[in-house]
Structures are given as C-alpha cells and as structure tokens.
C-alpha cells in the first residue's frame, strides 16, 4: 500500500500560516510596525492606500539588515529573537515566531529595501507570492522599508471576505494606535491616500495619549502610579463623569505589548464601583511592567492574551492603585461626607497668626440721662457701637427711636360711614347635594383606561380581559418605526438650535461619524461642520432634546464599534435601533394618564406591535378565563 502522508510545499505551507498571521490589512500593519520597533527605530512612517488593500508600507530608521539576513528573513521560522526554548519565557521583543514576513510574502507582492549604518550600499528584494523576483544592490538610507502591495492577490476568496474600506481602515488605525501608545519614545507618522493623519513626535505618555485621542482628553485623565516588587503600574484613567457607552479607549500594555484581559478589566471596574452610571465604561491607558519570566505570551496566535503567574496579586494591586488615584485627586467621595472644602484655610493664610482685636469704651456715656441727651447722642455719637460689655444695654437704648404716644383710639374711627351695605338683589339657588356610592377619587379611577404598575408596565382593559404593556419596549418599537420611516422617505423634521453644539470625539470616532453623517441627516440632524476632533450640530430631530444628543451619538458609536453594515438598509436599520434604544422611556419613569394612552395607541398603530426592534415581546394578553382559573384553584 502506498503511503498517503507527504510534506507540503513551502508556498502552500506559507499560505496556510498566513491564514493565522494575516487576516486583514491591519494584521500586516501590526507585524511590520512591531518589526520596526524591534529594530530599535526612532522614526517610523506608515503609508497605506485604499485602507491597506492596495499598499501597506512601513519605513523605519532602525538597524537594518545585511545581505544574508535580508534573504533569510523571508524563510519560515527564521528569527533573530530566540535561540533556544528557554528564551520563550524571557521575551522582551514583539515578534519571535519567524512566520510574519514569510506569510505576508506568500499572499502579496512584497518589496524590501534595507541598509545597515556601517554599510555603503543596501539590498533591494522583490517577492511575489513566495517567489523571489529580484535581488539587487542599491543606494539606500539607513534602516528598512517594507512595501506590501495587492494583498491576497493569489487568494481571491480571502480578498472577498474583506470588509469595506472604512471598516478595514478603522482596524488599521486601531493597530497603529496600539503600537504608538506603547512607544512614546518613537516618532510616528501615518499617511492614508496621500493625507497625513498623525504626526506624533517623541513625548511622554500623557502627550502621546492626547496626541492620538485628541479632543479634550487631557482634562479627563487621572494619573496612576504604583511600584511594587511584582509589578510597576503607570498610566492614566478617566474621571467618572467622562465615562462612555463604548469600550473604545481601554488599553492594557504589559512590557510595552498591547494585551486584552477581561480579568484585569474587572479589576479596573471594581475600582470604579459606585462611581459610574449603568452601562458606562471608563477610559484607561495602563502600562504594566512585570518580570518577563512571570508571564507567558505564547498562548494565543495574535499574542494579545497573556498568562500571569499570580493574577490575584495583580488584580488587588491594580484595583488599589486606581482607587487610590481616584481618591487622591478628589474624584471619588471621601469618608467625611459633611466636610465643606470652602471652610479650609487658604494656603496663603496657613502660617499667619490672628490679630487680637482692640476694645474702645466711651467713658462719658450715661444711660440715666434724659431723652434729649440720648437722642442727641444717638445722632452725633457712634462710640457706643464699639463699646465693650459694660455699654451693651446703653448702646441699644442710644440707637433706639423714641416712640410718640398714640392718639385717642376713638379718632381712628372718625369719618367712617355707618350705613349698612344693601343686600344684593340677586338670589342664588342652593346646589342640591346628593349622596354618591363612590367618592371622587374612586370615580376618577373608574373612568381611567390605563394603569401604570411599578413604573414599568401599563395595564389596559380590553373586551376579552386585559393587556400588560412593557413601556420601554413599546416605546422602542414606536421610535424605531418613526426613525426608519424618516430615513426611508427622507422627510425628517428638524428643530434649529439657538447655539450650535460642539461635541468632541477621538479620531477613530470622528472617522465613524463622517461615514454615518448622511444617514444621521435623514433622521433630522443638521451638521454645520466637522474638525479633526469635534463636530458642530446646529439642528436636531424634533423628538430629541438638546441634552440627549451626546447620549444618542455615544450609544450609536457603541453599537457600531464592530463595523457598519455595508448595505444602506442594514445601516439605516442599525441606526434606527440604536436611537430608539437611547431615547425610549426607561423603566422607572412615571407616565401620566395621557402619556400612557398615547403610548398604548402608538404601539398598536405600528406595523408590527407584537415585538420590539430587538425581537422581545412588547405586551402580553390575559383573558378573563385565565383570571377565573387562577381564582378557581
């Protein structure tokens, strides 16, 4: 029997490996940027076209490679980071598997230019689908340049699975931000389709965070600093009042490597316990330094998850350090809740001594003198106002006015008419009061058509029994169909604002808002302009208040953080659902009788009143027979 196991050709093995390493253009950006950082570069440029589908180029001024290394770097499992298995547990660099360049070269047209500082000439290599096309000597500057063109050119099926340019660009931007935030000691520049998006000079952590997130990030940050034997924690967390609906600005870096950790995220949320509104997430940029031999980073293909030796200790330290920072900067409440900060001694009065007040006594004052003297003293003299304890009563009598005796009380009635007032010629019929079986409150309750229970459900009687409506879900259905109709027929009404709203967002959120702007305008929003870090809104839909605008947009960004649907209908449907969820009346809100009637009538005027936009039932029906069965038990 012939053997059936055989070795795969190198180009097939590289394409299989590329399935794990290269999922989208952002994966190429991540690998090339990390290689540039490992090459000890101080200036890195990222250039992309068509969200990375046509071109991804990374240029650095790092160490460069020799002719031999330039050729070997495209071989599988070729790396300069490790020599033996023990090195896997003391890694201080990014890439170490030796599969990135080989995998990228297997599915794209790749061009590399590299030169070491001590060499006069560099090396220029061109590869297409794992095949070496050319290798030449060239005059080049110090460093390395990788240009990846036509990604997935030989795997059309993989290329078809890529999302729109906007979605892919957001993934590229996420990878760039993660690397740039982790290394503020490197100058980063980012170009997309010929336009400069980022120019981040060498700076500290705070300046780098503000440079990337833009907006009013600086005033939101609270510094965190804790140094222990097992971990060093540095970074910043946001103040509770700036918490958002989405989790876009949450970054953990362990030994300058971006990671995702639900366990550490829970520690951060525990530090904010009692300070955040329901559903809100804080922003944080935390840099953790731990001994390399206490972590294992080789447990996930993308290397974004790390195994710690002592997670419980890290959890406690991280939670305590954040809680301490929030309390230190008067963000979280203190134990003395009745303390008034306005009563604290100002700093410039701290070391001053109080002056002893002087006492002046009027020795000539006599409380037993006649009224004329007292009146003369009260008009001309003021010394008693500063007199001591012996002149207290005299001071009061000196300033008091003499009351003239009242005239005879009979004179108060002189001139009053004594004629009696004639009775009115009109006669009024007394209203006959009849007894009633019910009082007024009971009659009013009997005429009501709806009732609200626990500020959550609305009960309305029908012929066969009664219906119980969930007020939150019912309002969601009503608003959803209204928004969807406005976006479909493009006839939404807007209310003009007296003063335009300026709303600040990060660069990634601004890119998402730019794509959503046409759909938002069909719902009634009017945009006056957009800058690099904020938008200007001059008109809003009629069923939205000015205070709800930021909440609606934040909820929309949160719902669309995983991507915007490609089709226009799906995009409008998503926006309508998000806005309905934000604006629907919440559980716990009191509704008047008229509001209850309008809600019930509006629900049953919808095309599909049975379910909410999120496929949840909006009401249930209880028949009289069902109620009778309950009492028959």
Automatic annotation (TrEMBL):
GO molecular function: ATP binding; ATP hydrolysis activity; ATP-dependent DNA damage sensor activity; mismatched DNA binding
GO biological process, one term: mismatch repair
Family matches, as Gene3D superfamilies: 3.30.230.10, Histidine kinase-like ATPase, C-terminal domain, MutL, C-terminal domain, dimerisation subdomain, MutL, C-terminal domain, regulatory subdomain
UniProt cross-references to SMART domains, sorted A to Z: DNA_mis_repair, MutL_C
Pfam families the UniProt entry points to: DNA_mis_repair, HATPase_c_3, MutL_C
Keywords attached to this entry: DNA damage, DNA repair
Region (Disordered), start-end ranges: 360-397
Residue ranges constituting the MutL C-terminal dimerisation domain according to the UniProt record: 449-591
Domain of life, source organism: Bacteria
Alphabetical list of InterPro entries matching this protein: DNA_mismatch_repair_CS (IPR014762), DNA_mismatch_repair_MutL (IPR020667), DNA_mismatch_S5_2-like (IPR013507), HATPase_C_sf (IPR036890), MutL/Mlh/PMS (IPR002099), MutL/Mlh/Pms-like (IPR038973), MutL_C (IPR014790), MutL_C_dimsub (IPR042120)
DNA damage listed as a keyword: yes
Tagged with keyword Endoplasmic reticulum: no
Positions of the DNA mismatch repair protein S5 domain: 209-327
A GO cellular component annotation in the UniProt record: mismatch repair complex
Family, per entry: Belongs to the DNA mismatch repair MutL/HexB family.
Function: This protein is involved in the repair of mismatches in DNA. It is required for dam-dependent methyl-directed DNA mismatch repair. May act as a 'molecular matchmaker', a protein that promotes the formation of a stable complex between two or more DNA-binding proteins in an ATP-dependent manner without itself being part of a final effector complex.
Protein name (record): DNA mismatch repair protein MutL
Origin species: Flavobacterium reichenbachii
Taxon lineage: Bacteria, Pseudomonadati, Bacteroidota, Flavobacteriia, Flavobacteriales
């Amino acid at each position: 029997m012939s053997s059936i196991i055989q070795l795969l050709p190198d180009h097939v093995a590289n394409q299989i490996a590329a399935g794990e390493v290269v999922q989208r253009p952002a994966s190429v950006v991540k690998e090339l940027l990390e290689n540039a950082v490992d090459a000890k570069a101080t200036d890195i440029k990222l250039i992309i076209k068509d969200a990375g589908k046509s071109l991804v180029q990374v240029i650095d001024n790092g160490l460069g490679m020799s002719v031999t290394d330039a050729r070997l770097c495209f071989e599988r499992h070729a790396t300069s980071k490790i020599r033996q298995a023990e090195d896997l547990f003391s890694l201080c660099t990014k890439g170490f598997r030796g599969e990135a360049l080989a995998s990228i070269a297997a599915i794209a047209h790749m061009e590399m230019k590299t030169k070491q500082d001590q060499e006069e000439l560099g090396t220029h290599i061109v590869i297409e689908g794992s095949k070496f096309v050319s290798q030449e000597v060239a005059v080049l500057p110090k460093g390395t340049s990788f240009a990846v063109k036509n990604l997935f050119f030989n795997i059309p099926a993989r290329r078809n699975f890529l999302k729109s340019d906007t979605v892919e660009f957001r993934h590229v931007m996420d990878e760039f931000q993660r690397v740039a935030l982790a290394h503020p000691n490197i100058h980063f520049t980012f170009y997309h389709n010929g336009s400069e998006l980022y120019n981040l000079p060498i700076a500290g952590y705070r300046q780098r965070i503000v440079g990337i997130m833009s907006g009013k990030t600086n005033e939101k940050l609270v510094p965190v600093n804790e140094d222990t034997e097992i971990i060093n924690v540095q970074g910043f967390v946001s103040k509770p009042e700036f918490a958002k609906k989405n989790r876009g600005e949450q970054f953990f870096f362990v030994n300058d490597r971006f990671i995702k950790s639900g366990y550490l995220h829970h520690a951060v949320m525990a530090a904010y316990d009692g300070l955040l509104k329901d559903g809100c997430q804080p922003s944080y940029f935390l840099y953790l330094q731990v001994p390399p031999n206490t972590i294992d980073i080789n447990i996930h293909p993308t290397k974004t998850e790390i195994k710690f030796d002592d997670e419980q200790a890290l959890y406690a330290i991280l939670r305590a350090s954040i809680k301490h920072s929030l309390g230190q900067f008067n963000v979280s409440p203190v134990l003395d809740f009745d303390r008034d900060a306005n009563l604290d001694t100002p700093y410039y009065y701290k070391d001053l001594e109080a002056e002893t007040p002087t006492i002046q006594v009027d020795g000539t004052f006599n409380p037993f003198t006649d009224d004329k003297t007292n009146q003369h003293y009260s008009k001309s003299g003021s010394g008693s106002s500063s007199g001591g304890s012996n002149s207290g009563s005299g001071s009061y009598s000196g300033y008091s006015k003499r009351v003239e005796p009242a005239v005879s009380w009979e004179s108060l009635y002189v001139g009053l008419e004594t004629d009696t007032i004639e009775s009115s010629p009109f006669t009024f019929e007394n209203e006959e009061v009849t007894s009633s079986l019910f009082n007024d409150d009971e009659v009013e309750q009997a005429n009501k058509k709806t009732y609200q229970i626990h500020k959550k459900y609305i009960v309305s009687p029908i012929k066969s029994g009664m219906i119980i409506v969930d007020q939150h879900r019912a309002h969601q259905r009503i608003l959803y169909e209204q928004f969807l109709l406005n976006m479909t027929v493009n006839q939404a009404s807007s209310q003009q604002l007296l003063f335009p709203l300026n709303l600040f967002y990060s660069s990634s959120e601004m890119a998402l808002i730019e794509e959503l702007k046409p759909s938002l305008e069909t719902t009634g929003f009017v945009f006056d302009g957009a800058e690099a870090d904020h938008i200007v809104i001059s008109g809003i839909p009629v069923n939205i208040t000015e205070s709800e605008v930021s909440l609606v947009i934040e909820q929309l960004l949160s719902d669309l953080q995983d991507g915007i649907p490609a089709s226009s209908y799906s995009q409008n449907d998503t926006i309508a659902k998000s806005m309905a969820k934000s604006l629907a009346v919440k559980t716990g809100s009191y509704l008047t009788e008229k509001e209850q009637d309008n809600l019930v009538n509006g629900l049953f005027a919808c095309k599909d009143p049975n379910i909410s936009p999120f496929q949840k039932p909006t009401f249930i029906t209880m028949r009289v027979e069902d109620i009778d069965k309950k009492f028959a038990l």
